[in-house]
Amino acid sequence: MAGVDKHGTTTAAGVVVPAVPLSSGKPMPRVGFGTATPTLGQAEGDAAGVTEAVLRAIAAGYRHFDTAAVYNAESALGDAVAQAVRAGAIASRDEVYVTSKLWITDAHPGRVLPALKKTLQNLGMAYVDLYLIHHPVSLRPPEAQGRGPVVVKKDLVAMDMQGVWEEMEECHRQGLAKAIGVSNFACKKLEHLLSFAKIPPAANQVEVHPYCRQNKLREFCKVRGIQLCGYSPLGATGTAWANNNVMDSPVLKQIAQDRGKTVAQVCIRWVYEQGDCVITKSFNESRMRENLDIFDWELTDDDRRKISDLPESRGNYNFLVHESGPFKTVEDLWDGEITAGQSNQTPLVSSD
């Protein structure tokens, strides 16, 4: 189990969220707030909903905010932070930790720095605290911008990882990203990146919950000084990348009942106890606060043993697998790590 962090911020809400030092930049608060909507910002009212949710999250005590170019939420997040500063809810932009991600259409040499500059323009900020490569694959850039699928499988191509990472390093050198890292990278892909990286990735953000425990990857990252950050700790019910096993689990429901907690709190606490950072996401104010109420209690050894016996599977499973692409099987995509999963149909992904 993780020890107590030396860093931490006591917010106006009275919540102390511990933070963990990374290999560069400022310490990352261990619990963050996610801004991805199920439609990735393509539904009417999504932007206003994100802005309002972030303002409520700041009031509840969150200071770590996770976004991405593909979420179409960067402007809404930036607006909320600016409003919070004007209202005196936070002293300055520097009081929050902001992560964004390079989408696969821009994961090409020559497109990384312009993509980050566009992200910063959207956010209305001079820098992000952490900038991640969203996936270990690239997509041929579309001829026309607009709504529709965010992944067209037949257009998936192998990433020039060295060329892209060199530009990520340049983003860091220019001070536009205080730390750089990756997302959805399994061990072999990380090993390849580390073979040429002058600046190693500070973090790797991946799916983590009691049904997708990532023990092998966590150990790999720990040895190499890379902070694991878990998304979908509750299984992301209602999204294209959902793993419905989590919230429906009789085992987790029983643990929650035994502890006098919710299933959500059990899941977030479990990820926290692994030493990971964890990105929660609820736009409901009472659940936002509930999701932060995980620091002053622990799971029992028996609870942990029951969780370690659960069958593993992914929600983010095969969206980037295609017979013409660089990853023709789930085993290729995830380096043979946790290869069971749910194949969810979604208009956000097209095979044609």
Automatic annotation (TrEMBL):
Keywords: Oxidoreductase. The record marks K101 as: Lowers pKa of active site Tyr. Signal peptide: none annotated. The active site is at Y71. InterPro entries: AKR, AKR4A/B, Aldo/ket_reductase_CS, NAD(P)_OxRdtase_dom_sf, NADP_OxRdtase_dom. Residues 31-308 form the NADP-dependent oxidoreductase domain. SUPFAM superfamilies: NAD(P)-linked oxidoreductase (SSF51430). It comes from the Eukaryota. GO terms for biological process: response to iron ion starvation; siderophore biosynthetic process. Substrate binds at H134. GO terms for molecular function: 3''-deamino-3''-oxonicotianamine reductase activity. Pfam families: Aldo_ket_red. Belongs to the aldo/keto reductase family. This is NADP-dependent oxidoreductase domain-containing protein. It comes from Urochloa decumbens.
